[in-house]
Design goal:
- The complex is a heterodimer of chains A (about 200) and B (about 350).
- Helix content of chain A is about 45%, strand content about 10%.
- With about 200 residues, chain A is mainly alpha-helical.
- The N and C termini of chain A lie far apart (about 75 Å).
- The relative contact order of chain A is 0.06.
- In chain A, helix 2 packs across helix 3 and helix 6 packs antiparallel against helix 7.
- Chain A is flat.
- Chain B has eleven helices and twelve strands.
- Chain B has an eight-stranded antiparallel beta sheet with strand order 2-3-4-5-1-8-12-9. Chain B has a two-stranded antiparallel ribbon with strand order 6-7.
- The longest helix of chain B is centred in the last third of the chain and has 29 residues.
- Classes of the chains: A mainly alpha (about 200), B alpha+beta (about 350).
- At the A-B interface, strand 1, strand 2, helix 1, strand 3 and helix 4 of A face helix 2, helix 3, strand 6, strand 7 and strand 8 of B.
- Strand 3 of chain A pairs antiparallel with strand 10 of chain B.
Chain lengths: ~200, ~350
Amino acid sequence: MDCQNCGQREALIHLTEIQDGQVVNRWLCSQCAKEKQAARRPHDDGDGDFFGPTFPSPAPDRTPADSAPDPLGEFLRQEASQHQNLDPQGVDICPACGFKLAEFFEGGRLGCPGCYRAFAANLRPILSRLHGQTIHLGKVPRTNPQGPNTAAELTRARIALTKAVAAEEYEEAARLRDHLKILQERQDRDSHGNS
Amino acid sequence: METPDLFPKGEAPLPRWLQDEGPAGLIVLGVSAHLHRNLAGFHFFPHAKDAECATVLAEIREKVDGPEARWITLADLAKPARKFLQERQVIGSWVHSDVPSAAVAMNEDGSQILRVLDQNHLQVVNLQSGFAPEKATAAVMARESDLEQKLFFAYQEDLGYLTTFVNSVGTGLHLAAMVHLPGLVLAEEIDKIINALQQLGLRVRGLFGTHQTVRGSLFQVTSTITLGRDEDEITNDFKYHLGRVIAHEQSAREQLHARDKHWLEDLVHRSYAILGAARLITAQETFDRLSHVRLGVGLGILPQHDTVFLNRLLFGQLTGHLQVSCGESLKGSSQARARASFLRQCLGGSGD
């Protein structure tokens, strides 16, 4: 097979690239492949970096010279451009650590656990678009100082109820409906107690 | 201090997860589960200053009492040793030597790892051979259950476990699979598969390589959704979607073999011969040749070898592994020479 770049030498290298989510396959001779590599990454030592399964770019102050473009960063920058008028109810600086909301939009990271509450109004739509949900349904700490996670249990029970109805499992649906009622009462009582 | 026997001169034994074929091991090299946690009451890393990072590390080291007895402070590692550990997935690519407290702890066989100050305060990692995501998830969840008795993790009732980056908040659980998809690449169907996976909330990138480059048809597929699903659902979804990719790959390989038998056998044997004879070989060409050989082993074209042998070739020829093995930094032609020599030795030729 001839090189798909120069069309002259024998193709030895099968180059696969992911560009903007599209895969580009090319058979190249070693010289064209080398030139292509050199043009893209002057400091590439051959086998490149070994990437872990994490996505966001590092913080600006600790960015490796060869960090990859990151989809989360791009996503957040798009979000930021669409959110010029930040929620007037929301704060733009975390009272616990002084981290700025603008920094979050730049790098996708937060400063401390308190940032999640401080920036809740602005984070919610982003979490919804990233994960499709805004409520935790997974493991709860064994000793949860905040008590039982009623909101999550409610969501979980509602999802289970929808599934049971769709599967025509009416006995299970009736049980879940009763369970939901108890949870709802508990949440009403808790919120009443907190107010 | 570096642990001396961790970086032996000569060929280092593979970690256990690369020494077993595991389920669907002809297509999936391994899977890893990554559980992210932060200690309550501290700034997230890297917003925390160095002194606070040191406290976080001290707190974790003091409380951790488990199989990960081997602690390595990353600032103590020379560049080749760091690259070697990155290649084995012990440390993430995110950690840098300018963070004095960044450290990892690992068990004897390199399958259970704690990464400290890599994006979050703590990352519990488990690696499994082949395609066994449920085992990896079970292992990290069990380890975290032990740890939560001694460490107090940042948690918020509605959002779950709080992480530095919003894409891990909730369960804090990501799964990653290292998959070899030469059938789909050669059949030019890989773009359809990648697009479909991305729409299902899975991220695909080259396992080795830079930026968007994919080497040797080796891909890394990672789950991205951590909120609004529990750990079992995340794991089952990942298993289901990847299972379909494995089936497509298997079918693409068989069709390719049936349709272009002679071309494929020529490709496999030619690559095998070059790997066993070359005196100078680049990483890029080696990835490609090894991909052909791995495909050939999967299709029974090279019945004398198994995937464990191929893992030995694949990892042993990586730059960090070669440098640790030779005990020196290798560049350009000296690296190409060391790589070719290693491959010839493994393939029964002369290493001279």
